[in-house]
Amino acid sequence: MRPRSQQHGFTLVGMMIGVALGTIAMLAALTMWQVMRDAYASVADGIEIEERGQRALAIIAHAIRQAGWIPAQVALEPAHPAPQGPLEGHDDCGAPSIDDGLECGRRGVRGSDALLVRFSGSGRATDPSLADGTMTDCSGYALPAKTVGDGIAPPAHHAATNVFYIGNGSDGVPQLLCRYPRRSDNRAQAHAHTSGTLVRGVESMQLRFGMVDEGDGQGESERVPALLDAQ
Fold first, then answer.
1. How many CB atoms are located within 10 Å of the residue 33 CB?
2. What pLDDT sits at residue 42?
3. How many beta carbons lie within 10 A of that of residue 54, not counting itself?
């Protein structure tokens, strides 16, 4: 008579313990993956924020370096008037408009300031109102030495007025915007402006103002932007 073979299997208790241990190991792995993913996202967000801030400052710094520039072909014209100041700033300024100066339509996003920069570009020798491509404004388009006006005498000094400010996009995301002259037939319009987004995700822009003594005995009476913080 052949002996009966003994077969061993898992008991119900053993199976339950195994399932529990496997579940714990899986949860630990998922938790570790979540922690690592969040850490990576945090680092990536920090890098992106820093890059946005650097880009915003680079764009504004480029415009400020050109502030007040008037090419000789315009500056030497007999009818050339005294130019307006190349820089203006306003505290807590939103929805800015450009008339004779910087006007604020409402309070700024998170108290952000606005910066106005005036300068000219470089035009062709045969027609200063056509850009030669060597200078640009905040739109990225080439800027000529002179603007043209629709039946209105354009200013003979600075060809461009750029205004930097913070506004909310249609999705509510704050962004750095710039108002700049409209173009028509490759010519910059003196009295028409439009706005464009430069950098998304810029939440605030704060100007630090310096004081200029005008030498009129009234003390320090004119404020000009001195330093800039963008976040």
1. 10
2. 74
3. 12
